[in-house]
């Protein structure tokens, strides 16, 4: 999982979506009763990682 903390705007939503960051969650503070932190959000990109085993029994990581 890759995460970027950045403001939410129509432009940032479009640009991050082009890069695979398609989910976002609003950030809240813990020191003020859980109120939102202005317009900052966490943009999430799900990254799949697979492991394969070679013919010699070695484990190798591959990005897909």
What's the topology here?
Elements: E1 2-7, H1 10-18, E2 23-28, E3 36-45, E4 49-53, E5 59-63
Antiparallel strand pairs: 1-3, 2-3, 4-5
Could you characterize the architecture of this molecule?
The protein is mainly beta. The chain is 14% helix and 50% strand. It has one domain (2-63). The strands form two sheets. Strands 1-3-2 form a three-stranded antiparallel sheet, covered by helices on one side. A two-stranded antiparallel ribbon has the order 4-5.
CA-CA gap between termini = 13 Å
Question: How many separate helices?
Answer: 1
Q: What number of domains?
A: 1
How large is the radius of gyration?
A: 18 Å
The portion of residues forming beta strands comes to: over 45%
- Helix fraction by DSSP (H/I, runs of at least 4): 10-25%
Strand order across the largest sheet: 1-3-2
Low-pLDDT runs of 5+ residues are none
Mean pLDDT: 80
Order of helices and strands: EHEEEE
What spatial form do the alpha-carbon principal axes imply?
elongated
User: Structural class of the secondary structure composition?
Assistant: mainly beta
What about the largest sheet? 3 strands, antiparallel
- Strand elements, count: 5
Main features:
single chain; 64 residues; mainly beta; two-stranded antiparallel sheet; 14% helix; 50% strand
What's the gist of this structure?
The protein is mostly beta strands and 64 residues long. The chain has one helix at residues 10-18, and strands spanning 2-7, 23-28, 36-45, 49-53, 59-63.
């Amino acid at each position: 999982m890759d995460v970027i903390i950045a403001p939410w705007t129509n432009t940032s939503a479009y640009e991050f979506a082009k890069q695979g960051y398609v989910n976002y969650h609003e950030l809240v503070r813990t020191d003020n009763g859980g109120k939102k932190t202005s317009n900052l959000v966490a943009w999430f990109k799900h990254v799949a990682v697979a492991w394969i085993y070679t013919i010699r029994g070695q484990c190798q990581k591959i990005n897909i």
